[in-house]
Design goal:
This protein is an alpha+beta fold. The protein contains ten helices and four strands; from the N terminus they run βααβαααααααββα. The chain has one domain: Glutaredoxin, CATH 3.40.30. The chain is globular, with a radius of gyration of 16 Å. 36% of the residues are buried.
């Protein structure tokens, strides 16, 4: 049974635009998923990346065009300039980690709900009420927003180290137990083909 380690930043619009495609292909191919939110701002200086505001104007302008094109291709609602971005990604990341540890709900649905809250619903995913609502909507105990803080914080820091060790340099990033790596939501078709043994 294949396994995908899914590295992502809660600040990434590209990860939001991946939607539920990873979960759909996992169901199709019998693949399991480990969700690993990480601090992309801490990753960039260690892997040669730059925060958005430090990139050349041409790259920033191109990003906006690509986001709009991808929004149209996916049919997903997207506010390219959301009201609460950037925000503190740690609280929502801790909630995802705690939910995965607790089990009993749908981690993929939780991740997508949090991204949707930021990029389509103009909500601040650092706020406790937003996180609790997403947890409950995905079938988890909303109190995980509180009880998972310590373990979430420890694993969140560890996820960064694992990301660096696994050669991750962006979000979303998919590492298959076969050793193959795929960067970006625009590589999900390639990931599907690989999981099916076609690539």
């Amino acid at each position: 049974m294949p396994h995908v380690t899914y590295y992502f930043s809660m600040l990434s619009p590209w990860t939001y635009l991946a939607g539920s495609r990873l979960e759909q292909m996992a169901a199709e191919t019998g693949t399991t998923i480990s969700y690993r939110p990480f601090d992309i701002m801490a990753l960039f200086p260690r892997t040669g990346g730059k925060p958005l505001g430090e990139r050349p104007p041409a790259r920033q302008a191109y990003r906006l065009q690509e986001l709009e094109r991808t929004r149209k291709k996916t049919g997903m609602a997207l506010n390219i300039h959301p009201a609460h971005w950037p925000t503190n990604p740690a609280p929502s990341s801790y909630a995802v980690i705690a939910a995965q540890q607790a089990g009993g709900g749908d981690v993929g649905a939780l991740v997508q709900a949090l991204f949707r809250a930021c990029w389509a619903e103009e909500k601040d995913i650092a706020e406790d009420s937003v996180i609790r609502a997403a947890l409950e909507g995905a079938g988890f105990d909303p109190s995980l927003a509180d009880s998972g803080l310590l373990s979430g914080a420890m694993e969140y820091a560890d996820n960064l180290e694992k990301a660096v060790a696994d050669g991750v340099f962006g979000s979303p990033f998919y590492v298959v137990d076969s050793g193959q790596k795929f960067w970006g939501q625009d590589r999900l078709d390639d990931l599907r083909a690989h999981l099916k043994g076609e690539l």
